[in-house]
Specification:
This protein is of the alpha/beta class. The protein contains 24 helices and 29 strands. The protein has five domains: 1-147, 3-Layer(aba) Sandwich (Rossmann fold), CATH 3.40.50.720; 162-168 and 187-293, Rossmann fold (3-Layer(aba) Sandwich), CATH 3.40.50; 295-457, Succinyl-CoA synthetase domains (Rossmann fold, 3-Layer(aba) Sandwich); 507-584, ATP-grasp fold, A domain (Dna Ligase, domain 1, 2-Layer Sandwich), CATH 3.30.1490.20; 590-702, ATP-grasp fold, B domain (D-amino Acid Aminotransferase, Chain A, domain 1), CATH 3.30.470.20. The strands form six sheets. A seven-stranded mixed sheet has the order 9-8-11-10-12-13-14, sandwiched between helices. Strands 19, 24, 25, 26, 27, 28 and 29 form a seven-stranded antiparallel sheet that branches. The longest helix is centred in the middle third of the chain and has 20 residues, at 439-458. Bound molecules: adenosine-5'-diphosphate (ADP) and magnesium ion. Magnesium ion (MG) is lined by residues 684, 697.
């Protein structure tokens, strides 16, 4: 369906000026200059039968065009766009690019018009790219339906940009980077078609090997994740995501919320789907070039070959920084190299073939190492020294690389320097060997490529576990609270909700009088914890609402003290007090936090980490998006620095009940999936023992609307 946007047999451009070189005329010029092979129909409502622009007949209306039109580019003022859409419908054009700006980006009035535009298009079965876009480029179909000043050479990198200006910036960089473009899509306001649609389309595009995106937001977070998972199996997706909007989250009332950065959901979503996130346009090109030119490594073993000790050391440092593994040469390679290289060479990794290495020595070396089965990737570092012949060396590298190409080894180079190395760069680019200026960048690219290989082969989709829970009962409780206007739920209610989802919680008895409290205490017979029960009190200890280690004979007195403190705090609103909860005083255990917070675009984030008072101090946590699965829960736990070690049993300590933590996380995931209007939920701490455990305090925040 989207095919017509990239490979139309005919294009209409509505809004071409009869007198001036306006935007639409610029687009028309671009279309003609790029060598588009289909038909082009300019449209202007003032056109007469004799009107011509660039020697093409201009039509007064789409309907007047005597032939079928596949794609319509709309470049009229915002107020006139809707009627063009109607004309498109009449003309049976269902692929439309609205270049015109002045919609959502300008304020409420523009947003209203944009909504109307989408509504109209949907009614008529028209797909819209835009509004507020630069247009579309498809180099393989010689289509430049854009007003971008640069038309890059054809190649295998697709580029999706939410910003037109950033789009132009990157397009202009393609030639300098030595890479080519397959398709460029400016998505602008994304009123209808967005990045989700286009990454899915590009997944099956034979001309595209890498998808590069500049994005400022992803509104359809869940759909994006689903799509990205599919696409990444076929080709890498490299994303520059800018903008850290606060809109993604509401004010937080729990630790889980307080730990969230505004950008957290994106970070997690990219990590989970295997989308490669980069910070800068330069970085995006570095990574994209690696993938565009080379196969991703089959394994992780990297060999560094260099003509300079310093370059080798820098690359080794980078390998350590990015956890890239150094290969060990196989014995046969070592022996052959010993025979053929000067005695002073260092035949290990980095493989240092010395500063006086001439092209011949590079050739001998590469011929030995390229077929070595103990190596998955090679980074060749070349510095300009007295006898280095950069261009000849580059030629030799390409020649040997060509000989062993079928071995599918990943080869990157780092011809370091400036002017002298320029000639080498061009040679390498032609042979599709990605060259970088510094070892750090090269190694970072290798890291991304290795990660990509792992993700692609290693992902097994597993079904989430489903627990037997009391969904409807819990829903009723939450609805009741909401109707009473309590959007923050703590104390006994919060524990009850967790319990309904089979998360182990401490025994909790709500008492309403000192006498009742005493009776319960005697029944429990152990030291107790007493806590104020009031929907108006969220942080109980802060107001003297918690007493721990109380013996049964002191319970009545404690009850009264807690009530008094609460009344003081509530300034007489004592009808807000439900009573005092009594729990057995639990022995010390590992204090764990489990929680969830809802992101407007991606849904619930689940959090695991070190619990207790010092949550924000240690910030030892990991995060995933729902739904969780067993293996992802395991990953989450392993990802934390301290919590994972404490649970495993540090040094001589015993192991704690990790299984209980895992199950609790899965149950929490099920809870927020079942009841998505939970905005925030947290158990802190979940006390974990060597066997068993229990939540002793929990909080929930629900939305006003379900
Ligand atoms: P809040 O966080 O609202 O102040 P909590 O219920 O978390 O109230 O109680 C405060 C602290 O008291 C907890 O962090 C924990 O250290 C301790 N505590 C609470 N309940 C128990 C219990 N049942 N057993 C042992 N210690 C408890
Ligand atoms: Mg607490």
């Amino acid at each position: 369906m989207l095919n017509k946007f990239f490979n139309p047999d005919s294009i209409a451009i509505v809004g071409v000026s009869l007198e001036k070189e306006k935007l639409a005329n610029q687009i028309l010029k671009n279309i003609l200059e790029a060598g588009y092979r289909g038909k082009v129909f300019p449209v202007n409502n003032k056109a007469t039968p004799a009107s011509k622009v660039r020697s093409l007949k201009v039509y007064p209306n789409l309907k007047e065009i005597p032939e079928k039109v596949d794609l319509c580019l709309v470049v009229v003022p915002p107020g006139a766009v809707l009627s063009v859409i109607d004309d498109c419908a009449d003309k049976k054009i269902n692929s439309v690019v609205v270049i015109t700006a002045g919609f959502k980006e300008t304020g409420p009035e523009g947003a209203r018009l944009e909504k109307e535009l989408v509504k109209r298009a949907r009614e008529k079965g028209i797909r819209i790219l835009g509004p507020n876009v630069l247009g579309i480029i498809d180099t393989h179909h010689h289509l430049n339906a854009s007003f971008a000043p640069t038309y890059p050479p054809a190649g295998n990198i697709a580029f999706i940009s939410q910003s037109g200006a950033l789009g132009c910036t990157a397009l202009d960089q393609f030639p300098l980077e030595g890479v080519g473009l397959s398709k460029f899509i400016s998505i602008g306001n994304k009123a209808d078609l967005d990045e989700v649609d286009f990454i899915l389309f590009l997944k099956d595009d034979p001309q595209t090997r890498v998808i590069m995106c500049y994005l400022e937001s992803i509104e359809r977070g869940k759909e994006f994740m689903k799509a990205a998972k599919e696409v990444v199996k076929e080709k890498p997706v490299v994303v520059i995501k800018s903008g850290r909007s606060q809109a993604g989250r509401k004010a937080a009332s729990s630790h889980t919320g307080a730990l969230s950065g505004a950008d957290e959901a994106y970070e997690v979503a990219f990590k989970e789907t295997g989308v490669i996130r980069v910070k800068t346009v330069a970085e995006a090109f570095s990574v994209a070039r690696g993938f565009a030119f080379q196969p991703p490594p089959r394994g992780e073993r990297v060999l560094l070959v260099t003509n300079a000790g310093g370059a080798g050391i820098m690359a080794t440092d980078a390998c350590e920084d990015y956890s890239v593994k150094l290969a060990t040469l196989s014995e046969e390679t070592v022996q052959n190299l010993k025979k053929n290289l000067p005695a002073a060479s260092s035949i290990s990794n980095p493989l240092d073939i010395l500063g006086d290495a001439d092209p011949e020595r590079f050739k001998i070396t590469l011929k030995e190492v390229l077929p070595d089965p103990a190596i998955d990737a090679i980074l060749l570092l070349v510095t300009p020294q007295a006898t280095t012949k950069p261009k000849e060396t580059a030629h030799v590298v390409c020649e040997v690389y060509e000989l062993f190409k079928q071995r599918e080894k990943t080869v990157l180079t780092c011809f370091m320097g400036g002017e002298i190395m320029q000639s080498a760069t061009t040679v390498l680019q032609k042979a599709k060997i990605p060259n970088y200026n510094d070892p750090d960048t090269a190694v970072k690219v290798l890291r991304s490529m290795i990660d990509y290989s792992k993700i692609r082969v290693g992902r097994k989709e597993e079904e989430g576990k489903v627990f037997k829970v009391e969904k409807s009962k819990i829903e009723v409780i939450l609805k009741e609270e909401k109707e009473k206007g309590y959007l923050q739920i703590g104390g006994a209610k919060a524990l009850e909700i967790m319990k309904g989802y089979r998360i182990p919680v401490v025994e909790n008895y709500l008492t309403r009088s000192p006498e009742e409290a005493r009776q319960i205490a005697e029944k429990i017979g152990k030291p107790l914890v007493m806590k104020i029960e009031s929907p108006a009190i969220v942080h109980k200890s802060d107001i003297g609402g918690v007493k721990v280690g109380i013996k049964p004979d002191k319970v009545e007195q404690a009850f009264n003290e807690i009530m008094e403190n609460a009344k003081k705090f509530l300034k007489g609103r004592s009808d807000e007090i439900k009573g005092v909860s009594i729990q057995p005083f639990l022995k010390e255990g590992r204090e764990i936090l489990i929680g969830a917070i809802k992101d407007v675009n991606f849904g619930h984030l689940i959090r695991f980490g070190l619990g207790g008072k010092y949550v924000e101090l240690f910030r030892d946590f990991s995060t995933r998006l729902v739904p969780l699965t067993s293996s992802r829960v395991l990953e989450m736990i392993e990802e934390t620095k301290i919590a994972s070690k404490l649970l495993q049993g540090f040094r001589d300590e015993p192991a704690y009940d990790v299984e209980l933590v895992k199950e609790s996380l899965l149950k929490l995931s099920q809870l927020v999936e079942d009841i998505p209007w939970i905005e925030e939920i947290e158990a802190n701490p979940l006390l974990v023992y060597t066997k068993g455990g229990a939540v002793i305090d929990a909080r929930i925040r629900i939305a006003k609307e379900e």
